[in-house]
């Protein structure tokens, strides 16, 4: 075999691999508001696993699929919207972007902005961000500003900054973010062949439930789907403004990604709930952490606490008899567990591995093998 043919074969293999990791804009461009000549800033987001959760299905009495959004490049669903936000920012001539964040948005914005060659300004609630998410923003070169306030204070400042200075706002109040995030609904239909009976997900700033509903309704209107699901959202009990019907001034929950007291997309989320015949409820921190542990221990899916809110809600409604058996259910888990390892390990006691001699019987003994 000649060196030339070897290089050609390697190039062909790389091309196949590249095609397998195209981002959501390349895959769904006809469904997205981009001009043909607009630049595309992508890290190969989307095409995340849709996993049949067998033990969860057995417990719920429903065919339950888990949409694992932690498999996106920066470990959360935010990447779907951020590819659109940064592509739009570059097309508009922006030289910097700004976001308020509970963590995942900042990680995603910083990564995509670094790819685009833009500066990122991140406004975070002081001392209330999981270390893993903060590390992502820092290593991608973001200018991180901690604000003595909560997420809602940060978002208000980000809005004002983008209004008064030449920076693009990339929070989900930017409508192109929702456009990118709706592609997850397209993927669900593409895999299952139609929309499920029920789609369940966590609700924080409420952009994701809005985006999924938009995706499902667009697929229904244009042919790939023959129906839409009921949309069920779950907030943390300490940060449940949509359940209470009013903003929460001091939201508090272990699920930092949904620790939001005044969701920017509240109106659209309520519309998604009502138009779909769905519901938005709350779950306790204890239920969230139990669901996080359940997913990791029984389904092999490690998620951050907020991601487990939907599973916690399903388990609670099954317990109360409000979840009808026999349905096809999709539950979105929004971020990877490595985002917040401190919370994952809290309450488990000191993490120690027993030290033994390099001896087969010693290892077997501590493992309980006989």
From TrEMBL:
<feature type="binding site">
    <location>
        <begin position="204"/>
        <end position="208"/>
    </location>
    <ligand>
        <name>pyridoxal 5'-phosphate</name>
    </ligand>
</feature>
<comment type="similarity">
    <text>Belongs to the threonine synthase family.</text>
</comment>
<dbReference type="GO" id="GO:0006565">
    <property type="term" value="P:L-serine catabolic process"/>
</dbReference>
<feature type="cross-link" description="Isoglutamyl lysine isopeptide (Lys-Gln) (interchain with Q-Cter in protein Pup)">
    <location>
        <position position="160"/>
    </location>
</feature>
<dbReference type="InterPro" id="IPR000634">
    <property type="entry name" value="Ser/Thr_deHydtase_PyrdxlP-BS"/>
</dbReference>
<dbReference type="GO" id="GO:0004795">
    <property type="term" value="F:threonine synthase activity"/>
</dbReference>
<keyword id="KW-0791">Threonine biosynthesis</keyword>
<dbReference type="GO" id="GO:0009097">
    <property type="term" value="P:isoleucine biosynthetic process"/>
</dbReference>
<comment type="pathway">
    <text>Amino-acid biosynthesis; L-threonine biosynthesis; L-threonine from L-aspartate: step 5/5.</text>
</comment>
<dbReference type="InterPro" id="IPR036052">
    <property type="entry name" value="TrpB-like_PALP_sf"/>
</dbReference>
<dbReference type="InterPro" id="IPR004450">
    <property type="entry name" value="Thr_synthase-like"/>
</dbReference>
<keyword id="KW-0663">Pyridoxal phosphate</keyword>
<comment type="function">
    <text>Catalyzes the gamma-elimination of phosphate from L-phosphohomoserine and the beta-addition of water to produce L-threonine.</text>
</comment>
<keyword id="KW-0028">Amino-acid biosynthesis</keyword>
<dbReference type="InterPro" id="IPR050147">
    <property type="entry name" value="Ser/Thr_Dehydratase"/>
</dbReference>
<feature type="modified residue" description="N6-(pyridoxal phosphate)lysine">
    <location>
        <position position="78"/>
    </location>
</feature>
<keyword id="KW-0456">Lyase</keyword>
<dbReference type="GO" id="GO:0003941">
    <property type="term" value="F:L-serine ammonia-lyase activity"/>
</dbReference>
<dbReference type="GO" id="GO:0006567">
    <property type="term" value="P:L-threonine catabolic process"/>
</dbReference>
<dbReference type="GO" id="GO:0030170">
    <property type="term" value="F:pyridoxal phosphate binding"/>
</dbReference>
<dbReference type="GO" id="GO:0004794">
    <property type="term" value="F:threonine deaminase activity"/>
</dbReference>
<dbReference type="InterPro" id="IPR001926">
    <property type="entry name" value="TrpB-like_PALP"/>
</dbReference>
<dbReference type="InterPro" id="IPR026260">
    <property type="entry name" value="Thr_Synthase_bac/arc"/>
</dbReference>
<feature type="binding site">
    <location>
        <position position="104"/>
    </location>
    <ligand>
        <name>pyridoxal 5'-phosphate</name>
    </ligand>
</feature>
<dbReference type="Pfam" id="PF00291">
    <property type="entry name" value="PALP"/>
</dbReference>
<feature type="domain" description="Tryptophan synthase beta chain-like PALP">
    <location>
        <begin position="41"/>
        <end position="335"/>
    </location>
</feature>
<dbReference type="GO" id="GO:0009088">
    <property type="term" value="P:threonine biosynthetic process"/>
</dbReference>
<protein>
    <recommendedName>
        <fullName>Threonine synthase</fullName>
        <ecNumber>4.2.3.1</ecNumber>
    </recommendedName>
</protein>
<feature type="binding site">
    <location>
        <position position="334"/>
    </location>
    <ligand>
        <name>pyridoxal 5'-phosphate</name>
    </ligand>
</feature>
């Amino acid at each position: 075999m000649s060196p030339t043919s070897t290089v050609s074969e390697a190039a062909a293999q790389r091309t196949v691999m590249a095609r397998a990791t195209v981002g959501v804009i390349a895959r769904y461009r006809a469904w997205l508001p981009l001009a043909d000549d607009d630049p595309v800033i992508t890290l190969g987001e989307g095409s995340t696993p849709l996993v049949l959760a067998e033990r969860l299905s057995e417990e719920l009495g429903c065919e339950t699929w888990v949409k694992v959004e932690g498999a996106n490049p920066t470990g959360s669903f935010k990447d779907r919207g951020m590819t659109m936000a940064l592509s739009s920012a570059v097309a508009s001539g922006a030289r910097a972007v700004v976001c308020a964040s509970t963590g995942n948005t900042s990680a995603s914005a910083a990564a995509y902005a670094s790819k685009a060659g833009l500066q990122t300004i991140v406004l975070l609630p002081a001392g209330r961000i999981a270390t893993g998410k903060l590390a992502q923003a820092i290593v991608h070169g973001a200018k991180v500003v901690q604000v003595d306030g909560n997420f809602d204070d940060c978002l208000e400042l980000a809005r004002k900054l983008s209004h008064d200075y030449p920076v693009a706002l990339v929070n989900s109040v930017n409508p192109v973010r929702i456009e990118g995030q709706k592609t997850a609904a397209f993927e669900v239909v593409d895999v299952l062949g139609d929309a499920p009976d029920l789609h369940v997900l966590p609700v924080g700033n409420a952009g994701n439930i809005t985006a999924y509903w938009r995706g499902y309704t667009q697929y229904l209107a244009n042919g790939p789907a023959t129906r839409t699901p009921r949309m069920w959202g779950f907030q943390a009990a300490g940060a449940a403004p949509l359940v209470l019907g009013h903003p929460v001034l001091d939201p508090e929950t272990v699920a930092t990604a949904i620790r939001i007291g005044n969701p920017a997309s509240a109106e659209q989320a309520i519309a998604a709930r009502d138009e779909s015949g769905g519901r938005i409820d709350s779950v306790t921190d204890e239920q969230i952490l139990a669901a996080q542990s359940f997913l990791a221990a029984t389904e092999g899916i490690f998620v951050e606490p907020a991601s487990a809110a939907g599973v916690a809600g399903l388990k609670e409604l099954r317990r109360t008899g409000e979840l009808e058996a026999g349905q096809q259910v999709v539950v979105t888990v929004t971020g990877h567990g490595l985002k917040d390892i401190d919370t994952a390990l809290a309450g488990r006691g000191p993490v120690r591995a027993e030290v033994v001699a390099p001896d087969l019987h010693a290892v077997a003994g501590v493992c309980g093998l006989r």
